[in-house]
What does this fold into?
Amino acid sequence: MIECKHIHKVYKIEDIETQALKDISFVVKDGEFVAIMGPSGSGKSTLMHIIGCLDTPTSGEYLLDGKDVSKLSDDELADIRMQKIGFVFQSFNLLPRTSVLRNVMLPLVYAGVPDTERTKAAEAALRASAFPEGFWNHHSNQLSGGMMQRVAIARALVNNPTLVLADEPTGNLDTKTGEIVLDTFQRLHKEHGRTIVLITHEPYVAEHAERVIHIRDGMIVEDGKVKNRRIANHQRKEV
Amino acid sequence: MKISDVLHETYTALSANKARSGLTILGIVIGIGSVVAMISIGQGASGSIQASIQSIGSNLVLVTPGFQRGAGAGPVSGGRGSATTLKQEDADAIQKEITQALAVAPEISRRYQITAKGTNTNTQVVGTVAQYPQVRNIQIDAGSFISEQNVRSLSKVAVLGPTTRDDLFGEGSTPIGQSIRINRVDFKIIGITKSKGGTGFGNQDDVVFVPLSTAQRFLAGDTYVTTISVQAASPDVMATIQQEITDLLLQRHNISNPQLADFQVLNQQDIVQTASAVTNTMTILLASIAGISLVVGGIGIMNMMLTTVTERTREIGLRKAIGAKRRDISLQFLSEAVMLTFFGGFVGIALGWIISLLVTQFAGIATSVSVSSVALAFGVSAAIGIIFGYYPARRAASLNPIDALRYE
It folds into this structure.
């Protein structure tokens, strides 16, 4: 469960203060699938950095699983990210010339998990993200964009996180492969009960979530259930 | 993060860019290689100089004539070694008075034209006594050396060095019983000495030994000796013996002021030390020139690591995002630098070893690659990795994950 209480973020560049976030408060319960939507410059990236423990708010409280993480040091934040958060980035950010399995188990490498255990966890995560088994030992740079993003999703799942945080996960994909990725998220939410926060500027993508938080000029302008929720119409067949 | 994982990441990163890694370590390879080669050549040279000094005898104290001074010469100095003041009796006195002198061998040496059947050569003729082989480390290959009996009876016998034997009678021959003519006097050959090798101070194999008394009577025509070699009982007493001989001879020659001594007493250890000091200086000089290339190599590593950090900014951002701490990142980049220099050091040691082998093979200079120089090379290369890898690693570790992930 994540709780944001009156979060403000101010950037100061050469005496000019920019208010990126103004009084943001919301709660995401375990098992929710939330989209944070807004145009570019709305502050959604800043919010994502704070939710993802990559940055800390200027004021306000951010509780992750009941623990206030808004005033931790860099290394303590790294620890929280390692244990509680799984990231999916727009540009995949996989290690090139490294096998799919190794990419997926990388968070567990930093957590110091023994070899056999982390291999098992990586395999389970790859299955959960419906990544075909025949490609597990391929290098990540030999894969298509859709497959790369599913490797990234598996990597986000491998540490069994409280929260999967996806930043424009379909931004670099065509509609068809984007559909596959959205289907993967919906299935993870429905079948595995994962908490997912998806950041996007596309209403079409946001409508795949259960709930959408609209953000504009650093403030929440709307927060509510998606009325006509889209179900990714991807025929689930192995690639 | 476990060490095995750090090494795994390091290996993946370095092997991704084999050409660049290879070129970068070339600086270290050349640096370490030349340091190892220079030290081995220096140590080899110093070893062979010491060996050749030792080969003229062990624990040797040499008495040689000094300046010719006094009534005969007036104020004109005849130069070192020109005095004809050392006599057979001086040697006998040293033998008698100085108890720690194991053996004393006076000698008179001069160059003569020597003829045998149809051939001739010009070489050193050494008139000496039976103790000479013991004092001067000479071994007999065939026949025997000059005996005390030979000296007493003024026998016209000669012992040839192997080079002289080769020159006069042909290589590998055993001309014992044949005769040679020195200064129009016939000598019968009774022995051949073993080769001592021709390195260092002149060729000790190109020599003819005859009895001292015979040389004085038939060749030189006087009773002086040119050198008295004294073998000390042990290296520890050499300085004492040196002093005792000086005192004894000053007294025998009636010289009150040691500055005016007509002889000089050399201690073999002094010669060894002087020679070692020279070669050590050379070794240090060569090694420090080679060391400069090591520093240049280290800067090359730092340059490459800085480039790598910039190139891999996004990767660093990702690693931090999924939980890598500052320490993990800096450890990874430091380990890459150390692995490079360590590998470079390893190849460099092999290179230095090959160079020193080639030098031995083609230049004929003895070399020796010592364990300590290899250990030093490894230590230095690892240290260079740490020193020049530290700054890039710190830079990588201090990157902000948000900025790093956005970096294009």
Observations:
- The interface with chain A takes residues 1-2, 5, 9, 12, 16, 314-315, 317-328, 401-402, 405 of chain B (CB under 8 Å).
- Strands of chain B lie at 60-65, 101-116, 119-128, 140-143, 157-160, 179-182, 185-193, 207-211, 227-232, 263-267.
- Chain B is about 55% helix and 15% strand.
